[in-house]
Fold:
Amino acid sequence: MFFDRSYGYSRAILAAILGIVLIIWPGTAVRTIIIVIGAVLMLLGAVSLIFSKKPEEGQNRSLLSLNGIASLVFGLILVIFPTFFAGIIMFLFGAILLIVGVSEVANLISVRRETKAPVSLFLGPVITTACGIVIFFNPFSTIEWLFIFFGISLLVYAITEFLSTKKIRKIYRDFTASKEKESDLIEDVKYEEVE
Structure:
């Protein structure tokens, strides 16, 4: 299958949890938040690598592997060196949203090659990418506002990811059903060779 719905749902749930935590406790120690983000990235990277090994993934296998390895390495660096990243936290958050947004756009482009997925599905990843750009250039005067904005951005991403996954799941199910109907219409006919 070119799109694994459980992977999309897991990303949405993890992003929603992290977003809510950042909105409710923006003053939490930066070091702890960086370690949590690193652990989440490592988890998402491991999930990507697991799904990239499934034989039905087809042409998305190399993209998922690359995404998984990058997430694992980046997450591990965050967990090992959280204090170093505290000084560049705003750029880090912006980069995370940019990577996630661009990856989702690439994933949806791949999906559109296989089925007639609506253009509206691009809204969420584009918003996520835009939030990443805003955070990357750090227009905020305090770190608390940065955390709140990042939390809101993660919630927006989580909602749009959940809706996109649900929509693509339905599109894929309809696409598979129509292919099965087509194959049912084809019948084997007995014939005799005439010499």
